[in-house]
Amino acid sequence: MNYFNLLCDIRENNRNKNFLIIDERVYNYNYIYKEIDNIQRILKNSIKFDGYNILIFSKSFYFQVISFFVSNALNNIPIICHHSLSYKLLKEIISKNNINYVISDEKLEFDEEEIVKDLSEEIKHIYVYKFNSKDKILNHKNICFGAFTSGSTNTPKVLYRSYESWTDYFYTQNNIFKIDLKSILFMNGSLSFTGNLNTLLSVLYEGGTIVTIESLSPRRWIKSMKDNFVTNIYLIPSKLKLLSQVAEEEISNIKSIFTGSELLFNDIAHNLKNNFPKSEIILYYGASELSFITYITYEEMNLKPLSVGRPFPGIKVFIKKDCIYVDTKYHVFGVEVPCTVNDMGYIDKDGYLFLQGRKEDIINKNGIKISLLKIEQEIKKIKEIIECVAASYDNSLKGNEIAVFIIIDEDINKEDILNKLKNKLMPVEIPKKVFFVKSLPLNDSGKIDKKKLKDI
């Protein structure tokens, strides 16, 4: 069983129902099925099938969706790649992750012998590239798809998942997030981010509808939500912050807003509750390797600020040597549970989990342990700031020092920021360097790549 098979099953009773609404272009279940079926028939003459790694390289949401299902239709393993990668890193990813083919909607600067076929005449803007990887990955029969995470090196690695490792939990997560057959869910961003991919497939599982605007335009998001009678929202907290800043009136048909990847601060949650009064607001904590771990509701956020909640049903969480360990059966291949992804934290007397950052995010300065995550949290609370990341650097005289990289929405200077922090942080926690940037480097999972900050 794979996700093309699931799409076929759902389509049987929902042929004329909208599956995707992308920048106001509407595609029903039957149209998507026929598009996928047509492409996979043509590709059968160009590529091998049954267990090959297919890297999908595109910034188009539609192309990512179609290529994902086409790969599954050919019984291959789709892996959606983050689009803003250099060719050098893309080649390293292909080489080190045993990628057999790349499918893209743009001509890529690979060697001529790596181009299998220019299919843009038969299928609009589809190019296929073949690489001299191993024949296929071992023990592929239970592998349905792959997703990238950052390893200990600069080259992202593929994590492989079975169909059941996500679908067996869809019923539980959809019940918590209020996703059902009637759901019309708004989301934004690339499907290379596993949170987006999981959300899309969980809505498909119910036979619901996905709505997206591809640009980072919160006012367009609001209009789309109204025009399409959206019932659910999935956005990361930094995007929810943007949404809360432009929402000017109540939208009463939203029944759930769920988010992950970052902390959701109380002031943003309050603003969202005012604008979407009938919504259940949920923050979850998860990991690409382990899927969902804990979650917290809006009411609980008021009681336990900065907590990421208590475990999802069937998931066990405990602390060992300050590290968070998780016991779950919904993990990627190659993981032995209980497992840690090296996040640090603690569980309070009521069973709520609090994050302190990764091991590398805890630095020792003058004998005091400092959490870079805590510093980021306090800076992100400043209303003029859109995004922030803290990093340590070595000072030859004073040891570890702290630098912050900040994206601002309104005018604010370094002195104002540091003055606001003086009431929230210890003197030793105050950053020594502040950099104002227009964007932050992302890894293949769509998350901030701290290793690349040194190049800024």
Specify Rg, calculated over alpha carbons. Answer: 22 Å
Count of individual helical segments: 12
Average pLDDT confidence is: 89
Number of spatially distinct domains: 3
Number of strands: 25
Structural class: alpha/beta
Low-confidence stretches: none
Beta content comes to 25-35%
CATH architecture descriptor text of the largest domain: 3-Layer(aba) Sandwich
> What is the helical fraction, as a range of percent?
25-40%
CATH fold node name of the largest domain: Rossmann fold
Q: CATH superfamily of the largest domain, please?
A: ANL, N-terminal domain
Description:
This is Acyl-CoA synthetase (AMP-forming)/AMP-acid ligase II. InterPro entries: AMP-bd_C, AMP-bd_C_sf, AMP-dep_synth/lig_dom, ANL_N_sf. The protein is α/β, with parallel strands linked by helices. It folds into three domains: 3-12 and 22-161, Rossmann fold (3-Layer(aba) Sandwich); 164-311, 3-Layer(aba) Sandwich (Rossmann fold); 366-455, GMP Synthetase, Chain A, domain 3. The protein has twelve helices and 25 strands. The radius of gyration is 22 Å and the shape is globular.
